[in-house]
Structure formats: structure tokens, C-alpha cells
């Protein structure tokens, strides 16, 4: 009965934590989630018969080896909870009431350090931080993508302008030329969508090369602008590649400084 009560308390704390997160009360939310984790761990500790005072005098029901295995399983059950925490922090930076990137980063590091100090393996930590890395990679790529999109939009606009230059009834004499203009505009629009679809790329390891290849092969950007784009975003490409390889920021202070006023959904 006691375990059931504690388990229900843990679930309630998780819900409260989610509400606090939505209200942008990050510190309180993290503390609430931490309390929830403690309750869940307590529920899964049947090997300990009793605890006395600060000395924590405990009698084990099973062998030390079995107890260690149990503790390892307990660490593992924290991984999905930690994943939820890291994802929550990452997404909060993208809501309209976003938190600054510096605060996001500090909260994430605190959670990570606490998990490390409790014996959670690095490989499990990296798994838990999957969404955190995913969103950071998207945001590191965003300046390059948006800068490229401006030049692409100019190319699409030129194709559209040619279509709009046909006035009145499309006669048989100009039908072929008009159809060609329509097809060129549709191709341009499709080409623009290919750039935007890179945000959805499953294999983010390939993202820098995919963006670079898009710029080099695009028929909507003239050669001079291609070279200009690649040169202008040289450092941003380096930042993106560094993060993908190391899962750390190459220019952390610049990352903090570039934090948008409001988050993106």
C-alpha cells in the first residue's frame, strides 16, 4: 500500500513538473521532477528491509551481486525520465515563452552532472539527450538555411514574374512558351521545398554536406552568390560540423549571444 501511494505521488509530481515547465518555472519544474525520480527509485528498492537515521543501516535480502544488478536497473529506469527532462528543456527554448539559451545549457548540464554522479553511464546519457542534440543541430543550421533561402526565394520570384508577364488569353502561338514558364516556376518551387525538407533529415550527420551540395547545385542561385554564401557561412558550417561530431558547441558564447527573443515552434 505504501509503495502504491509513493508511486502515485511520483506520477502526480511528474504532472506538476510538466505544468511548471509550461509556465516557464524551470527551476521548480526540475526540482519537482527530481523528487519524482526519487519516489520511483524508492518504490523499486525491495532489497532494503529498513533504514535507520543518517547511517542508513540496511539489511539486504539478496547477495551483494544481485543488489548491484538491481541498482544498475534503477539507473537504467532513470534514462527515459532523463530523456523527458532533456526534451522538455530543449522544447521550452522553442515556445513563445522561451528561456535563454544560457539557462537551457546550464539546466541541461546540472541534470547531466547529477545523473553522472549517480552512476548513469555516458552511453545512456547520450541516448537520453537525443532530442536535445537534434534541436541544437537544427538551430545551428538555421542561419545557413535562412540565408540560402533568401537567395532561393529571389530565384523563385524571377520564375513567377515570367509567368505573370503573360497577360490576357493564352493563345496557341504563346501556349508552348507559357507552359515552359509554368513548368520552370513549378520546378523552382519544388527546389525550394527540397531546401526546407533538409530540416526533417533523419541522418543529421549528413546535414552540413547536404546543405553545401544544395547550394552548389542550385539552379536558382547564380555562381557568384553561391561562392558568397559558402564564404559568408564558413564559420557556421564549422560550428555545425563540430557539434555533430562532438555534441558540444564550438563557440559557446556566440551560441548564447545569438539566442532569439522568442522561440520557434
Provide an overview of this structure.
- With 265 residues, this protein is mainly alpha-helical.
- The protein has two domains: 2-129, no CATH class; 134-246, no CATH class.
- The protein contains eleven helices and no strands.
- α2 packs antiparallel against α3 and α3 (64-92) runs antiparallel to α4 (101-117).
- The longest helix has 35 residues, at 130-164.
- Residues 47-64 have low confidence and may be disordered.
- Cα end-to-end separation: 43 Å
User: Strand-residue fraction?
Assistant: under 5%
- Percent helix: over 70%
Radius of gyration: 26 Å
Our count of domains comes out at 2
Individual helix count: 11
Strand count, sense and barrel status of the largest sheet are:
none
**Roughly what is the average pLDDT, rounded to an integer?**
78
- Report low-confidence residues grouped into runs of 5 or more: 47-64
N-to-C series of helices and strands = HHHHHHHHHHH
Structural class: mainly alpha
Q: Which descriptor suits the 3D outline?
A: elongated
Number of E strands: 0
